[in-house]
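seq as requested:
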Amino acid sequence: MDIQPGDILEMKKPHPGCGSNQMLVQRSGADFRLCCKGCGHSFMIPRSKCEKKIRNVIRSSNNAEV
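C-alpha cells:
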C-alpha cells in the first residue's frame, strides 16, 4: 500500500478513547505514526499491523496525482 504523510486512514474499528475511526498519518515507513482525528491522541503502530486494519484511504490534496 502506498500511504503517505497527510493521508487519512479510515479504520475498521473505532478508536477506543473517543469512537472516531479516522486517523491522520504523520509518519510512514516500517511503522506509522497516526493521530486520531477525534481526540488528537498520537501513537505508533507497525506497518504490517496497521495495513490489516485499514478500510479506506482518503488522500490529502497535497499527495493527489494528476
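Strands lie at 8-11, 22-27, 31-36, 42-46, 54-58.
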